[in-house]
């Protein structure tokens, strides 16, 4: 056999070279975990045979989407407390619920549910950050999704890390367990925020990330309040605070980045810091609108994220693409901002670069890992297909029929291939009953 | 038989009385075209029998969504010209495409496609406005969707109305044909905008609507440019211009209403004018953010709309609900604005009132017409279900499995019951080939 997997007669969007070129009647061939070849059907070698052939004549094939920010286990808190002031939401609902219900079992099952939801909506790689991240990593591996799993760090007692003095040690242990263990799993560190981690914790965390060669994540400049508090406490913005601490570099992913002044934007650009933008979360929690158009002009690498389910309330990156583009247009009253190719780029190659996986995934190019999704062209909302624009604004996660990660079919015709989704849902339903039970 | 249709063991959201109360294990009984009864299963009469019984144990049942603004036939132009400046988009792409390709055949097939997309995403009633509206009305009737179909009026040559002197006469003819003809079809008039219709045309159009007792639609205050031009030409805002002409009353639906000053808002409230808000379109075309929170405080009845596919690019009202709520929150940096119950209200009872159908549809109440949808509770993104909040922010149109309009099942397990969707798509594909063919 020449190939392990061959998709034929499909409309293919490689999303290589920043363009939206498409192959109208094309093939994509996979060997092992990598893309072997792709092109028009007429160029498929006559002898090209495969173990598995998928008829793609009703499909659009594109790179799997990359979710650069998620707290997967928070599916348990989806819609638990909506439409509330931020501090009331956090202090009276989310933090207490986390204190009571977050444990290894909860993280395991609720992360599995999140992985199911993400695969169903076309996400093939997710960057997660939470506590009990061992359980999250196990769950991700079992579902077949690619993941960067980051153990959380805060300077107060957290689920699984009752004594904050041991928070960096907990990450070291997590990295010891997971580095080099599973091909689809990259362990990492997530220092929660400049306002929940001391300067020393931030520097120790970043130093550990550098030693181990793993990504470093941090929430940054999400709200105006955070900036004001930083100015009071440190005399500088949160971004400059991190810059002074030496935390900003191309292996740091700064999440949110809503409140950035011109100096902050320059610092992010100069240091090569990556940005994970979560427009849905920023809208729901009324944090603000991130300056994506400006950051792009500054050459900052940007990925898109869903954030956790408590602040969104779903994990559909197609929706985030739609929001990201439309939000910049309406903010600046300029419909040309963040065109479809930019938005598609953020959700694919941009996300891959943000996570340090730019050489591996993010576009359909021979030699890259085979992470791709097949959308159903027969959906009424995907007709006509004049161009790829409608993938950012007309498609939804529900249009995804088949998902391939690392050369393996993990969802086929909307059926999970590697794990029991029904069992997962049953477990989450049981956990949810406890959440609503009277205390 | 007591009932024609009985849904059992379902989670039911009646959306009556402005609340989000739900019946956790409930039944909904339909007799003829109306809701006969609903309540907890334990209150279902023991002898309650039905011709058709649907097991709703995996379903959330809620009122069908009401799309208060659409140009259905524009599915043909979906994604044709995105990310362009408004005037370039309109003058160099949309208007020329309409001049070349809009005819009765196009309107018929592309409206059928739109109806399929809307039914699939849970819309059971749509207010449409276009040209060749006879063909649109026929298409709507065949698909089983409820529709308010409005013939378009502009003071320049339009598809099917080459001489604008005959534009009001064309509406009269349209009303003659359709008034009282089909139970699900309400004919109406759509005067395009204050800047495309003369004062005389607007007054003649509104007078005709009053005589015939049909709704009157008009685009209003969509862009800042429109307001400035009105101030130059008429010395007043477009809203006050319409007020002076006597066009504003509870049977007028003003579409968009993005640029309203305090005086404009007061005029809409005082006259009882209804507002159809299209957040997705206003974002894509960078028109701006409508003052929905303020209009609500003024007591204005608001419905949601998708606008046509060229300016959105889909017809999914679940997405519009999500956008409407999140956009007000992020605009005002206040997460409590437009809570889920308000957004759900706009897409159901609000839409019904806006279209003059408040007594007939919009909530699940005995005696109202049976327009309802069943969502699949087994979708990963709909778990857990703590409250109805997640229907506005976690659900997508793809979660809708079964759709009932006027007591009739028009989609069952995502299969259209009354018309051939494949044939419709084939026709639209052929029409789309002409659009992209070299001239």
Q: Can you give a write-up of this model?
A:
- With 439 residues, the first copy, chain A, is an alpha/beta fold.
- Chain A has 2 domains: 3-62 and 371-416, Urease, subunit C, domain 1, CATH 2.30.40; 65-354, Metal-dependent hydrolases (TIM Barrel, Alpha-Beta Barrel).
- Chain A has 14 helices and 17 strands.
- Chain A has helices at 86-101, 104-120, 133-143, 167-178, 199-212, 224-234, 238-244, 262-271, 279-284, 292-297, 317-332, 340-354, 390-393, 421-436; strands at residues 3-12, 23-31, 34-40, 50-55, 59-63, 65-70, 123-130, 146-153, 185-191, 216-220, 252-256, 274-277, 302-304, 372-376, 400-405, 408-412, 415-416.
- Chain A is globular and about 65 Å long.
- The interface between A and B is large, with 73 and 70 residues.
- Assign the structural class of chain A, choosing from mainly alpha, mainly beta, alpha/beta, alpha+beta, or little secondary structure: alpha/beta
Unreliable parts of chain A: none
> What top-tier CATH class of the largest domain in chain A fits best?
Alpha Beta
Residues in helices of chain A, as a percent range: 25-40%
CATH homologous superfamily of the largest domain in chain A? Metal-dependent hydrolases
CATH architecture of the largest domain in chain A: Alpha-Beta Barrel
The major β-sheet of chain A equals:
9 strands, mixed
Beta-sheet strand percentage of chain A?
A: 15-25%
List how many beta strands of chain A DSSP finds.
Answer: 17
């Amino acid at each position: 056999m020449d190939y392990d997997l061959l998709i034929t007669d499909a409309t293919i969007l490689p999303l290589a070279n920043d363009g939206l070129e498409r192959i109208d009647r094309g093939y994509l061939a996979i060997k092992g975990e990598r893309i072997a070849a792709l092109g028009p059907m007429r160029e498929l070698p006559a002898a090209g045979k495969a173990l598995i052939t998928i008829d793609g004549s009703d499909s659009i094939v594109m790179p799997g989407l990359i979710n650069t920010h998620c707290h997967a286990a928070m599916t348990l808190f989806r819609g638990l407390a909506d439409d509330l002031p931020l501090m009331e939401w956090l202090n009276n609902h989310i933090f207490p619920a986390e204190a009571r219900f977050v444990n290894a079992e909860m993280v395991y099952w609720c992360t599995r549910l999140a992985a199911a939801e993400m695969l169903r909506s076309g996400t093939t790689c997710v960057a997660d950050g939470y506590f009990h991240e061992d359980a999250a990593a196990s769950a991700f591996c079992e579902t077949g999704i690619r993941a960067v799993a980051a153990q959380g760090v805060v300077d107060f007692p957290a689920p699984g890390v009752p004594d904050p003095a041991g928070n960096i040690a907990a990450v070291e242990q997590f990295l010891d367990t997971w580095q080099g263990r599973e091909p689809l799993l990259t362990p990492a560190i997530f220092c929660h925020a400049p306002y929940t981690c001391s300067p020393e914790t931030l520097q120790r965390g970043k130093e550990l990330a550098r030693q181990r060669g793993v990504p470093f994540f941090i929430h940054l400049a999400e709200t105006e309040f955070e900036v004001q508090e930083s100015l009071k406490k440190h005399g500088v913005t949160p971004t400059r605070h991190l810059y002074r601490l030496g935390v900003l570099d191309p292996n740091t992913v700064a999440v949110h980045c809503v409140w950035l002044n011109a100096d902050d934007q320059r610092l992010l650009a100069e240091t090569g810091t990556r940005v994970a933008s979560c427009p849905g979360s920023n809208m729901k929690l009324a944090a603000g609108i991130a300056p994506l158009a400006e950051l792009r002009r500054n050459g900052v690498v940007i990925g898109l994220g869903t954030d956790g389910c408590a602040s969104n309330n779903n994990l559909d990156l197609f929706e985030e693409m739609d929001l990201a583009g439309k939000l910049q247009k309406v903010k600046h009253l300029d419909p040309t901002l963040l065109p479809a190719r930019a938005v598609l780029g953020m959700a694919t190659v941009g996300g891959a670069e943000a996570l340090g996986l730019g050489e591996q995934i993010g576009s359909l190019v021979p030699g890259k890992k085979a992470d791709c999704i097949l959308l159903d062209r027969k959906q009424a909302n995907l007709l006509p297909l004049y161009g790829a624009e409608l993938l950012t604004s007309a498609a939804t996660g529900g249009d995804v029929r088949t998902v391939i990660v690392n050369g393996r079919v993990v969802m086929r015709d909307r059926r999970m291939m590697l794990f029991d989704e029904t069992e997962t849902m049953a477990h989450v339903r049981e956990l949810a009953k406890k959440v609503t039970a009277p205390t």
